[in-house]
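A quick aside before the break. I want you to see a complete sequence-to-structure record at least once, exactly as it would be stored in a machine-readable document. Don't worry about memorizing anything.
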Amino acid sequence: MAKAARAIIIEDGKLLVMFRNKEGSKYYTLVGGRVGDDESLEKAVTREVKEETGLDVTNGRLVYIEEHAAPYNEQYIYVCEIAPHAGINLQEYSEEAMLNRLNTNIHEPQWVQKEAFGRLPFRTPQLQEAIVKALKKGFPKEPVKL
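That is the input. The structure line, written in C-alpha cells, reads:
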C-alpha cells in the first residue's frame, strides 16, 4: 500500500498549493508526494517540499491522515513551517520539472489567499473542507483521520 506525505504551508495570509493539469484535468492539491520504501513520513514531506518548491521545512506536525484512492492509499498531511526564502520554484532535478519539460502532467506551485482556498477545484474535497475549517478554528492538536 503506497503512502504520500503532503504539506500545509501558510505564509503572509496565503496557502501553498500545487496546480495540476493532468491530461487536461485541471485541479489543485497540496505540495507533496510518495513516501519512499525506507523513508520516514517526516523525511518524505521535507524532501517533497524541497523538490516541488525549493523551500526548506524547519518543523512539521501531522494533523490529518486521509484514506485515499490509488495510487496513494494513505496520505499524511503535515502543517509545516519553512525557513526564510526568496520564492518558490520546482527544482530542475524533480520528477515534476521533468514532466513539465515534456509538456505532460503540468505542475505549478502557487500561493493562494487563504480565503480563496475553499473555492479552488481541489483534488480531495474532504481534505479541503477540513483545511478550510482549520484555517478558521485552528488545526487539530492530535492527528485526525478523514
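Two observations worth writing down. The chain has one domain: 3-145. The beta strands are 3-11, 14-22, 25-29, 31-34, 57-67, 74-82, 106-113, 144-145. We'll return to this after the break.
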